[in-house]
Amino acid sequence: MKGAILAVGNELVEGRVLNRTSFLAARTLLLNGYETAEIVTIPDDHELIERYLNDFLKRYQFLIISGGLGPTTDDITNEAVAKALGRPLVRHEDMVARIKARERAQGLSHNPLRLKMAELPQGAELLTYDHAIAGYYLRANDKLIFCLPGVPEEFELLLESRVIPLLKKLLPTDKYFLSRVFKVFGLREADINLALECLLHKENIKIGFYPALPEIHISLLVWDSSFDTAQALFMEVSAKIEKTLGQNIFGHDEDVLESVVGKLLNAKGETLAVAESCTGGLIASRLTRIPGSSAYFERGVVTYSNQAKIEILGVPEEAINRHGAVSKPVALAMAEGVRKLSGTTYGIGVTGIAGPTGGSAQKPVGTVWIGFSCPEDTVAQCFLFPGERHLVQDYAASTALDWLRRYLTYGTLVPSYQFPCKS
After folding, report:
1. How far apart are CA 401 and CA 258, in angstroms?
2. Which residue has the higher pLDDT, 110 or 381?
């Protein structure tokens, strides 16, 4: 059962707004057994809307259109859809009443432009029961057209609560799809591809590789007309991926490194403190994005200057003078210093050269020392991360978090990574 997605809006093609609605639609459709054959983004243009609508209806069973349903003069989707189908626009009095009720509830003066949202193609059926959100669907012979607002939150609400149930009722699918995203850190994309080569050409399996630097995401999609068969195949392939990539998989689907680390710390009743230089508080920021992080994250200090490293963390001035701020002795002292200062189970120290200036032949831009202090020992590694300043910082922060994850999960004191490691 295949369909298409048509995203409408000048702001989308001009790059001013990210097209989140197409992403939401494609992902939700797939998880419910519906394939998206095409996704097209076009401006607010009558001719283009009509052309794509008529073309898609010839080739697919359903079409989802997002955007252009609002009250302003550049919202032209309703008129274009009506013209393409050869139908007149009809005022929905129920929608008129909802719009006026919302104006009163919000203390707004009446604006006749808002009533434009109630002028819908003949045969349109509203997707909301009592809300003034624009959104409707149409039948065109044996095909379905869904017109949804371009606001992602409103789009997602109608997609999940009304569009998917209607599709399942009116265009039931004959396939079951199961999917999972494996999130990997510490391996290169091409090497992951080679390691999973034996799975890439099997029937009813699709595996994709997507750089989300500094991570690599692997998507697995399995399908069959029998749910039991699809599930058995899904479990078999998932197990092979897990075994092949091992410790390098840090999570799945919506997992992020900082939440994975947080759950592990919370489960063990252990705590963490971090001392950052070149990452400028990025690790602490990521950790504290997670609700409940105060249970395991005690503090983060940004010791950007040499003096701050000496005064706050107790880094020996001699170590900085002899080896430089970006060095093993300093990384060790930072990790151990912040752990002792805060009384936590673990301490992490990060010092490096994020660039674009400050590098040398001995310590080029991207050189980062990470120190890790735990009850067992305090150790440090030197890395040479690629990219511009922000990517070096991302790599450093993710490596520090992943290092802790591997220790908490596997007891790995000094992990091995594929990106250049100089120690």
Report:
1. 7
2. 381
Q: What is the pTM of this model?
A: 0.84
Write the pLDDT tens digit of every residue in 166-213: 999 999 988 889 999 999 999 999 999 999 999 998 999 999 999 999
Evaluate the omega torsion of the peptide bond into residue 214 and state whether it is cis, within 30 degrees of 0. Answer: yes
Question: pLDDT tens digits, residue range 405-416?
Answer: 999 999 999 999
* Domains defined for the chain, CATH in brackets: 2-170 (3.40.980.10), 176-252 (3.30.70.2860), 257-410 (3.90.950.20)
